[in-house]
Specification:
This protein is an alpha/beta fold. About 30% of the residues lie in helices and about 25% in strands. The chain contains ten helices and 15 strands. Strands 1, 4, 5, 6, 7, 8, 9, 10, 11, 12, 13, 14 and 15 form a 13-stranded mixed beta sheet that branches. A two-stranded antiparallel ribbon has the order 2-3. Strand 13 and strand 14 form a beta hairpin. The longest helix is centred in the N-terminal third of the chain and has 18 residues. The protein is globular, with a radius of gyration of 20 Å. The two termini are about 30 Å apart. The relative contact order is 0.15.
């Protein structure tokens, strides 16, 4: 399909606009839930001339509806972790190869080839359940890195600490990707002074610790690992792409992904740069799901492709983006 090729051939804003509008038309015609949502807010294809005109589906619909563009049997279904008793999101994926293409492009555009890194994944809460898109990505990174030391760690913090120090001292480029609470557990057990390692947090205490603001988390991690910057990954079950931050909470998107900021009091209006609002994600790799999602996260745009991500809406299930139930 030509759209699959077009998504990963985007070079500039004009390419992005053209491809996004084509993807919108494709999803409007072939995704019954999205089509119905567009009709309910009275947004017809004829009135969608720019990226800013495209309607964004509230992310909560992934909990209550099957979001599919075209009819297919999924190769894999990604699910969100969810707290006990809460409804989880489900993301049926038509082609796993599309997800792989996307996360490789997302990573290499910002960090270069994954083969250059020893990849250590400290993702206990994700490893303990099925259907995690992050585990699928990390597993691919580990295999592609071709380093014997690359691997997953569940609760082997002492062993991980020894390996981390050894690799860093040997001058190896290391990527330690971890969930926030597990990274804190690691530095409470051992203090580091790392020179060649990227510490990348994927967010979330997953109910294991009290939630803290990103600045506080990053300060603790910088002190514990002895590094100047903490990197971050911004992704979610409902997406097939990731944004990355190389520090200071400033995120960049790959060429096939953009964030728009909506008015927190009026979900259908966008607001200018440097103002805080709800994050709308355009993830064009989400071709067979929905590429236009209104998340429950808060952020602001600060440059052409630079964003600050600030956290969640308060009471996010009811405020800001949940316009209606179909």
């Amino acid at each position: 399909m030509h759209l699959e090729k077009a998504i990963f051939s985007i070079k500039n804003q004009q390419d992005f606009k053209q491809t996004a509008l084509e993807v919108f038309q494709f999803q409007y015609q072939n995704n019954t839930v999205y089509n119905k949502f567009c009709s309910l807010i009275n947004r017809k294809p004829a009135s969608v001339k720019n990226v800013e005109d495209i309607p964004f589906l509230p992310i909560s619909f992934f909990k209550s509806h099957e979001i599919k563009t075209t009819a297919f049997s999924p190769e894999i279904v990604f699910t969100s972790s969810g707290t006990t008793g809460s409804t989880t999101s489900k993301h049926p994926v038509k082609k796993l190869s599309l997800y792989q293409k996307s996360f490789i492009k997302c990573f290499t555009e910002i960090y270069g080839e994954i083969e250059n890194y020893v990849t250590l994944a400290l993702l206990p809460s994700y490893l303990e359940r099925k259907g995690s898109s992050l585990i699928t990505m990390a597993d691919y990174f580990i295999k592609e890195s071709k380093h014997p030391e690359s691997g997953f760690y569940l609760n082997e913090l002492e062993q991980l600490g020894i390996i981390l120090e050894k690799l860093d001292k040997a001058g190896k480029k290391v990527l330690l990707i971890g969930v926030s609470f597990a990274l804190l557990d690691l530095i409470e057990q051992k203090q580091f002074s790392l020179k060649n390692t990227i510490i990348m947090e994927t967010g979330g205490m997953k109910g294991r610790r009290k939630e803290i603001i990103r600045e506080e988390l990053h300060q603790l991690l910088k002190n514990g690992f002895g590094v100047n910057k903490i990197h971050s990954e911004y992704g979610m079950t409902e997406l097939l792409s990731q944004a990355y931050s190389k520090g200071n909470g400033i995120f960049e998107c790959p060429k096939h992904m953009q964030l728009l900021i909506r008015d927190p009091e009026d979900a259908l209006s966008l607001i200018p740069n440097h103002k805080t609002g709800g994050i709308n994600v355009i993830d064009l790799a989400n071709l067979y799901s929905c590429a236009f999602i209104a998340t429950q996260d808060l952020g602001k745009k600060i440059g052409a492709n630079q964003y600050e991500i600030l956290g969640r809406f308060d009471n996010s299930d009811v405020r800001g983006c949940n316009l209606m139930a179909l």
